[in-house]
């Protein structure tokens, strides 16, 4: 199932791994592999990337960061081709992403000249950037009856879907709220009326997709292999200013 109708599809710069993700999902369609298995695989890929960063094997780190992005898309694709949407998978994916983001940035801090305070700012910036992108993207999808496992506001524990346990949904939802709740509130505070405005134009969403996790990991991979490890953390800390610019543009649309 496509997330958006054809006329509202945009070039998603963070979703470059989608073609390979679809290929992986189609090859796993008739196997016993589940979307959760693929999520676990992207966690492993992310952890290998961290080890490669710490040991300064930057080409290998870049490979596993990009592989992590591809697998991050493949779990959702597999859920779609198998018609097995789940809140368990949705929250596990998000919890794994934020924890890996912390570990990846700490690994970069370890090998670079960045201060721990700049690293904390970069982490907060990356999460706020991703939250704004997801906030606007889910709003756009919900306007066109997108998938039901992604919600604009995560305010209450959803009822488990067929094939998953409510206990698992409860635990992962609570973890999600602890890890993402303040970021969600911060972005909502900055733009509480976003869901009631006009449909976001495609060019705007394409520009905003530079905030997507896939694009963030691609930038980290490129900067590592180009020998710019020392500017990764300051870049993401400073780029956070673009949040205010994107929100200002959205309000004028």
UniProtKB/TrEMBL annotation:
Annotated signal sequence range: none
GO biological process: one example: phospholipid biosynthetic process
Residue intervals passing through the bilayer: 38-71, 91-110, 116-136, 203-225, 231-249
Keyword Nucleotide-binding part of the UniProt annotation: no
Coiled coil stretches, renumbered: none
Pfam families per record: CDP-OH_P_transf
An MF annotation (GO) of this entry: phosphotransferase activity, for other substituted phosphate groups
UniProt record similarity statement: Belongs to the CDP-alcohol phosphatidyltransferase class-I family.
UniProt protein name: CDP-alcohol phosphatidyltransferase-like enzyme
The species this protein was found in: Olleya aquimaris
Lineage per the UniProt record: Bacteria, Pseudomonadati, Bacteroidota, Flavobacteriia, Flavobacteriales
